[in-house]
Amino acid sequence: MPNKGLKRKKLKENLFNKRRLIILNEDTFEETFSLKLTLMNVFVVATLGAIIITFVTTFIIAFTPLREFIPGYSSSKLKRDAMELALKSDSLSNALKHNEAYIQSIQKVLTGELEYAKFNKDSILEVADETAAVDLSASKQELELRKQVDQEEKNVNTPSSAKKGKSQPLKK
Question: Each residue of 151-169: pLDDT tens digit?
Fold first, then answer.
C-alpha cells in the first residue's frame, strides 16, 4: 500500500519538475534557444495543438468546396439541379394529365358522345382535377345492406334466439 503512494508522489514530481530545453549551434556550441519546460506543460500544449488541428481540419472540410471530394457528399449545385428537375417533372406530369383529359373530351365531341353545347375547356380542366379526388361516401344500397347486417347481428345476439337455435332469414 505505501508503495502505491510512493509511485504517485514520484509521478507527480516527474510531471512538475522543471527541465531545460537548449538548442545549441553545433559548430560554435553557442546557445541559440533555451526554454524551461515541465512534462505537464508539454502534455497540455500537445493536447491543445491536437484539438486545434482537429477543429481547423473540420472547419475546412465542412465549409469549403473541399468536402465534395469526400465520398458521400454531393455538391450543392448537384442538389439544386436535382430539386429543380423534380419540380419540373411534377409540373409536367400535371400538365400531361390536363392535356390528356382535354384530348379525351375532344374525342368524345368528335365521336358524338358529347353534345357540342356542353363543351367548355374550363369545365374539362375542372373535371380532370375532380377525377383525381375519390368519392368515398356510401351509396343507398350500401346503407341498406349495413342496416340489414346490424339487424341480423342483433337477432343473433339476443338470448331468445340462442335458446331456439333458429336464425332469421335474410330479407330481400
Answer: 988 888 776 544 555 555 5
- 3-state SS assignment for residue 169: coil
User: What residue has cell string 519546460?
Assistant: 37
Q: How far apart are CA 142 and CA 135, in angstroms?
A: 14
Rounded to two decimals, the pTM is 0.42
Is the torsion defined by CA of 144, 146, 150, 152 positive or negative? positive
DSSP state of 69: G
Whole-number Å distance between alpha carbons of 150 and 156: 10
pLDDT reported for residue 15:
87
Cell triple for residue 106? 375532344
DSSP readout, 93-134?
Answer: HHHHHHHHHHHHHHHHHHHTSS-GGG--HHHHHHHHHHHHS-
d(CA 61, CA 55): 10
